[in-house]
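Repro case for the chain-ordering regression, as requested:
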Amino acid sequence: MRENLLKRLWAEDKAAVNGWCAVPSSFAAEIMAHQGWDSLTIDLQHGVVDYQTAVTLLQAISTTATVPMVRVPWLEPGILMKMLDAGAYGVICPMINDGEEAARLVSACRYPPLGGRSFGPIRASLYGGADYPAHANETVAVFAMVETRRALDNLDAIMSVEGLDGVYVGPSDLASALGYAPGFDRQEPELVEAIDLVLAKAKEHGLVAGIHNGSTAYARQMIDKGFRLVTIGSDARFIAAGAAQTVAEMRA
Amino acid sequence: MRENLLKRLWAEDKAAVNGWCAVPSSFAAEIMAHQGWDSLTIDLQHGVVDYQTAVTLLQAISTTATVPMVRVPWLEPGILMKMLDAGAYGVICPMINDGEEAARLVSACRYPPLGGRSFGPIRASLYGGADYPAHANETVAVFAMVETRRALDNLDAIMSVEGLDGVYVGPSDLASALGYAPGFDRQEPELVEAIDLVLAKAKEHGLVAGIHNGSTAYARQMIDKGFRLVTIGSDARFIAAGAAQTVAEMRA
Amino acid sequence: MRENLLKRLWAEDKAAVNGWCAVPSSFAAEIMAHQGWDSLTIDLQHGVVDYQTAVTLLQAISTTATVPMVRVPWLEPGILMKMLDAGAYGVICPMINDGEEAARLVSACRYPPLGGRSFGPIRASLYGGADYPAHANETVAVFAMVETRRALDNLDAIMSVEGLDGVYVGPSDLASALGYAPGFDRQEPELVEAIDLVLAKAKEHGLVAGIHNGSTAYARQMIDKGFRLVTIGSDARFIAAGAAQTVAEMRA
Amino acid sequence: MRENLLKRLWAEDKAAVNGWCAVPSSFAAEIMAHQGWDSLTIDLQHGVVDYQTAVTLLQAISTTATVPMVRVPWLEPGILMKMLDAGAYGVICPMINDGEEAARLVSACRYPPLGGRSFGPIRASLYGGADYPAHANETVAVFAMVETRRALDNLDAIMSVEGLDGVYVGPSDLASALGYAPGFDRQEPELVEAIDLVLAKAKEHGLVAGIHNGSTAYARQMIDKGFRLVTIGSDARFIAAGAAQTVAEMRA
Amino acid sequence: MRENLLKRLWAEDKAAVNGWCAVPSSFAAEIMAHQGWDSLTIDLQHGVVDYQTAVTLLQAISTTATVPMVRVPWLEPGILMKMLDAGAYGVICPMINDGEEAARLVSACRYPPLGGRSFGPIRASLYGGADYPAHANETVAVFAMVETRRALDNLDAIMSVEGLDGVYVGPSDLASALGYAPGFDRQEPELVEAIDLVLAKAKEHGLVAGIHNGSTAYARQMIDKGFRLVTIGSDARFIAAGAAQTVAEMRA
Amino acid sequence: MRENLLKRLWAEDKAAVNGWCAVPSSFAAEIMAHQGWDSLTIDLQHGVVDYQTAVTLLQAISTTATVPMVRVPWLEPGILMKMLDAGAYGVICPMINDGEEAARLVSACRYPPLGGRSFGPIRASLYGGADYPAHANETVAVFAMVETRRALDNLDAIMSVEGLDGVYVGPSDLASALGYAPGFDRQEPELVEAIDLVLAKAKEHGLVAGIHNGSTAYARQMIDKGFRLVTIGSDARFIAAGAAQTVAEMRA
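-- result from build under test --
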């Protein structure tokens, strides 16, 4: 089975630099895939992408060595399994609040006996190879998002679920949950403390910690802290930022 | 009929700042449309867009006041008329070489008696208004690309065609045609001279001159020279540039 | 943030005339949007539309001042949040049976602290404006469909949920639930009584009452009664009715 | 091979009632196909439809006995042959001006020795049957649009081309060409005379005459005159008209 | 209402030969539909198909007499009802584990009073006929997949649910659940015994038993045993197998 | 620039085994691409594929080392250049009849000074590399189809055009043109003689000869004769053949 290069990076205690695909276009994704990311995550939650389009984005990413991941819209078995069958090598699931939800996430992503994932890796076995069924459980990376107060209260329970590879901090929702305005790159002590707690617990449980960032400076700080999956930028943001700057320069 | 804001700019001798849509996604186009461009051109020639997708991009642009234009793949009446019926307020046609080709271009874009455009403005009359048929001929902007040696030799013939609004310089193809490597923002004397000639002839014929640029600095120089439709940047380039820079910063 | 014109109508105790989009075509939706409706609802439940297509319909509606709404397929957080992120200014959710379901609906549609909606208004902030996050909770209209016997038994509980804007009567399902054949414009005393009860309770709770109708005559009666969101007609029905009548006239 | 029911109607000197599909949605087309038309024409010229979408419309129509036709965007061999391969049983080609253009149209639509159509009826042989190649030339109906002054001047040359089944009057373009505002259901003597001339010539040449209409009343007059392919209405118009009338009734 | 030909076959104790559509292309489905299957099942679980595409596949199948079925991704009411509204004449739902899940499945598929399916058969009434609402409950076939250990333990509870037409064995998942490698055409005694038990229970409860197969030889054995819905082959497998064999012959 | 592996095969006097994609699905293409073909040709002429879909097929093929080619619908510059910009590494153009047509084909495919291809390799430079512009002219393979009587009469003129890589025999059209029924794998002496003549002339001009085949046996004979691009099978045929055989086995 094709190796999951993220797992090799993590084995070497290196951080994966992750890009984000929110534009429903396989061409946009292919451009992204050629820029040197370790992985690209197709965002089916807040991105403008659903399953059928996401498959074409997975194909576009598969023209390169970049690892294809997805964020699913919600903890729903149907879409989780469909995206894995389509060849996602990593899954990020939003708003996991407790151990029971984490267990349901893992169950949807792992074949028996570890979980209850249904068998049918129709594109995954093209991308991963004919021996995908035998190695998928240890190859596919599964992340639970920690972004609610309940999740903070249940970190041990969440992280104790066998088969979970990591947790992923959503700073906007976490901030909202704690009474702050949404946004990335938080400096508020209460939020920094919460983020640090997630990281510390992840290390304790031997899990990978990931986080969403708004600037490369902050993302690099997160790597220095110990985060090993750092997301920075998205196709949608690059378009908006590049266009806004260009127009501003022309109007100056 | 909805006014073509580009024509107002030109009446005031102001330059239109034009963006470029090459990504086949109406969401990408909508992001672009919110960044303050005077106009956006959907590129059906070198962009990854064909008719059916282009209609959704026109709709996305139509959620704002940005003027929607298209570049067609070639001087073919079918696609020219389809894009106008879909509500394009401007058309750029590649590789017009002589007066006869310019006349065919204009004929495809103008209703009788000026041309031979077939009647059926199915979306154009939604976007432009019920009186679109009466005003389309003077509202829609038609540009012939000047980018070949034959075009340089036939500038007067091309620009004498009644119903043509302007000419648009494609620096890459023009450079190729004259024996240089393709690329924007040319400084070679022979190319600068050719570009200046097109501009001078356009002024002489009372036409708008446009040009494709690779940097805002060059684009602003072109405005200073007298170009009144300056293109700079594209959604595809913004993704590539933004992602490449982000990854570089993370790897630094 | 862009105002929700429906809320202004309701503040003035005026009824909103709502059209219905069931055809998966942004062009069909754009035609609809130009006919003067106060709002258009994209039907992801019984219409032939899913998320990816619905986004293009939202864009098409956004070319006009018509307020874009959606009916989701079911009380599922994934699709509810995706449609809000895509810029829906109103949501109608089918088959809300009790207060707990109503609470889950509201939670999916409202940011903290009112609910648990995840943050990422990717297209909503283009359509609504950069301050969408601050005003979304009071701008977006959320309707629970009342169309089952259990819902009739739990009207107070449903309507007491903070953050719910209104209830929407589905006469076909309500009729089925009470043992009648499905269909609109009910005259049976038991059904009229049920509908009147919903309306009275809505007024009591300070909520907007909405209803689906089969004829303009009935819809106007509903407005006279006090309904303030009246749906009448759909793109699919207009095609079928117009074509059937035309063929009939030709065969006569 | 599946019979072309239009040809049977014409053999019995009956008129075919033809509907028009301009909305790029196979569901809209399927609704249309269930309303009793003799044939439906997918409009790739002024409709919002291109090839890939048109194939799904052909499939939708093929769920019924309604005969599927197309109007192509222009006299271009590529799209003509692609639509025939996709199973169109009739083709209407715009703006045929003289015998040479009519000959090119027929050549693109007929297999050797009658024409130069390339062989590969990939969907046509599913729809028409395995013996499609042997019978296509006499089964598929080919119409040249007569809508320009040059066409009026060349009626005999156009109609003398072997393999042409009929001519189809486009009243809007014909009116434009003769100096009138575009529109259907013309009453101006000069236009009526031109239309009558086309009809008379068609009868003389043993061809079917068709015409586009704006009302059933006019369409029925055209049948009485002798037209045997009368188009009336379109999915796009039914949506617009139905919605406009509904909103008007609600606002009254 | 259009008859469900599968139900006629089963009334005559004949087996239905069922094909499988996993490729998201209405053209691929139309090719399949012309090859003589009794039914075709569009796989929204492991196939590369979601709702919007599935509708076009249903249309493609509807050009023939082949019965259109779907396998849904999961026991989720939203997609179950959407597929039925789109005209599926049969539904297969994965991973039904007990009577309560079977009851939820049936409820989503049956109109009151038998279930809680919401009313709006938008395409189903085109395909099935205007009297679809009156006959859908007895016409549409509903299958629960038996493929987990829990399901084996709850066969009577599952099969006792009124309104269920049959059970469908997924041999791969069943094998996984019992500790074997996934795959079709099982010969292991424990698996054969489990399969036989499902079949025996189905006969006892008067239900149709179905099964997925990997070879025609095994499928025919299953028919001989008493299975009445046997699936064999898929468009995706035919492409892979045909291409692999062709390349092998060329390389030999 | 990424090497064109076909050119390496031809340099070693080896034949390329070419598959054919006629199904408009990137997933179908990806399945094909994993079966070991030297190249895959996306058929935009008789296949059910147009530009926008073809791009996704190119992406799917690009996930493997298989060389992506296209057959365009017709000798039209717009689509030729768009497909090259999209990354096709080979082009087959139907119905080239004489040297002038061959010259137009080559001109559309080659950058100056060899031809007049317009510059903008938007996806080609992702797939081929940043130095695509410098090497495209010698990397991209251009084939003219020889399949008409006029082409047979003009073989020397066609093959003398500088920049043409090869000729490709379309046996069905060639047979039609010479008065035979269409079909592959011709044995008629007149047709064999014509095919042999094309091959001999190609060798004489130093060009690659290609041919479409209906069976591996015939294709291998063609290789033995000297053809170096042999097409055999297509996704559409594999589906039809596999399904037909499976159903036949079940009915036996």
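Ordering looks correct now. The interface with chain D takes residues 26-27, 30-31, 34, 55-56, 59-60, 62-63, 123, 126-127 of chain E (CB under 8 Å).
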